[in-house]
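Sequence in, structure out.
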Amino acid sequence: MNQTSRKVMRFTAWSAIIGGLLAYANVGLSVAVTGPDADMVLHGASMLALPPETRDLFRWCMVADTLGFYLPFLVIGGYFVHEFRDELGALGNMIVMVVVLYVVVGVTGAVLEFAILHPLAHLYAGGDDATRNAAAAVWTAIANGTQNGLWWIEGPLVLFWAPIAANVLKKAGWKGGILLKIVGWGFGIFFLFGFFPDLSALSNASEMVVVLVLPLWMLLFGWQLLRRARTLPARLQGAGATT
């Protein structure tokens, strides 16, 4: 493996590590905005009545969401498929498409909520009752479409690639496969329970497991990849000495 490959390994590792930290920041910012009532995001009147400082926190939450839970997986997924293309075969191409779709739907939802919160809040604050009701209805519709539509469909996407990646990485000597399997099945359960409104508590619980475990796996993956990048020259030197 050449110097360029080592740089790619480090870039991938730091993308995973920084992404994991930002994903945890997303969780913290979300709690700071909503407190224990995560469903508050789905209610337009509650969100649009927030003070400007709290709305800014929510917008930063969406930035951390994009840079933590989504964009790093373009790098991680690209490295994984390249590194294990022989083992994956046709599954590698499928994983690429699934990861890209996961990122697209996730970023779309986060960017929508980021972009419309302030304009709708200004309409809500300065409008008459009809304007306030309309602004609240628009936020409620978009938030529900994001939370229960775009982000909900992530379930089968992650359920597809996460267990495959966990098994391949485990065979190659990587740690943390169980974390990735928990993430995959957590996403699958979140998707399944989304069909049943009466099971919203279980759906929220599975979502909480996912948002806490996935960043942990990202940190562990990045740390292992950094170690492999650092030890790579020594392995190459040893291989050269035996030839």
